[in-house]
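Tutorial handout. Part one gives the primary structure; part two gives the three-dimensional structure as tokens.
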Amino acid sequence: MSVVSGETPTEPVISTKTGRVYERRLLQKYIDENGTEPQTDYRLSEDEIIAVHSEPPAVKPRPPTLTSIPALLSTFQNEWDALVLETFTLKQQYQQVRQELSQALYQNDAACRVVARLMKERDEAREALAMLQAHSATVSTTPASKTNGTSAGSKDMDVDSAELDTAAGQPADSQSPEEVYYTKAAETSKVLSKARVKRETPAGLASADEWKTASEKTLVESLHTSTKPGILTLCLDTTGSLALTGGADNHAEVYAREDDRTIATLKGHTKKITAALWVNGGGLDQRIVTASADKSIRIWNPKPANTTEGAEARSVGWTKAHIIKAHSTEVVDLSIHPCGEYFASAAVDGTWAVHSLDGKTVIEGIIESPISQISFHPDGMFLGIGTSDGFAKVVDVKQRQVLATLDVSSEQESKEVTGLHFSENGYYFATTTAREVAIWDLRKQKRAHTWTVSDLPQEDSQTSDSGNAFVDARFDYSGKYLALAASKVHICKVKGWGHLSVLDAGNCVRALSWASNTSKEIVTVSMDNTLRSFGPA
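Part two.
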């Protein structure tokens, strides 16, 4: 019997692989279509088929007659079985094709979404970078570009003006706090960018020759408490007469330099003070913002008695107005926005935020690296962020995107950014790590100059490189001088990056600040609880 037809074959053949008997005609047709032996997965060719010679030849049986009911039922049953089997096979193939099509459509949709998101991020990054370059370019805008109005800076100002006009037409009470911040930041940036183009050298600015003869002017000992020594932060008011310091003793203090006394102690934090800043340039009538390792930020309001007469009567002080707990880890740094109405904070877990002075958090963001420093660009549109893994990032506050990432450390060890400060010219900023100081040009996004510990002269040869780590760098208001803090304080000239003087500020300097717009005095604080001032002879 033939395996395929179930009838006696007229031309029988045998498969050499399975030994089954087939009708040659049917087997040949099946092999041509499928290439395998029926009901098996064996590959079969004509060479593997053996013809069977029967004597006498087999006689083809008569076809079944359909004249009887049993014969009809048998035929109908066979046809039904074949139809059901074919339908089942078609359903299986249909389900498989449908599943493959569904998966292909899903993958195509996901790919389109990813491409669209990447294109959007690319366009936003290009726009933000163009804005950054336009802000930097305003410093070097020529009179000709002002006349024809075709410079990149002019275009940027037109865009800002349009944005401000749109915001101005919207009722203030209908804007969200975040939109209010963006409007204020854009207004401030427009004003400061224009003013920076016309910016002149302050009258009475100290000369480079004067700083070559600089020496120590005053020494104040025993600020803060001796049980937990160490002054970690320093911020001077615009007159240079009030020094705001933050210590390892969990307190912030306001020291009146002319009266040589501490006029207020701000208590409330439970761990060391990591940052302390004056608002609006500082003064007896201005607020103070402090940050601590206890994960909190505090805003302090001046007392009504904070006047000159109150200072003489020793009745001045600041009271706690708001406590902000926007971070879940240690807050490491603060920066006041140029408009004086907002400030930024950063924590070691990579989170940063912008807050209003009424204690509300307006914007929150995060980067992938632990943060050690944060500072607003002088125009207020961007943030400079230093990380513990040796990078400086320029962040667009509105887009919450990193516009530029700069590798600030060439050393494998001690990569943490210990200082970050923008020059008032708008395109230079300085970064410090333990082993080197780098000056960056935002217009070109590359280093303009670098100092290592061994590049700077020392007053004595006994100071070792291991004990001479950079902790801070500060441009003066004019943008013509740069002060570097290590085991010594170094004064350098921005033009040509020449070294002017080296000053002994005691052991373990932690922070420094220029005392006035004329750059005739610089103040430092140290881990030995001392405050020193230096100036030309």
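Part three, for discussion. Residues 165 and 286 are 31 Å apart (CA to CA). The mean pLDDT is 84.
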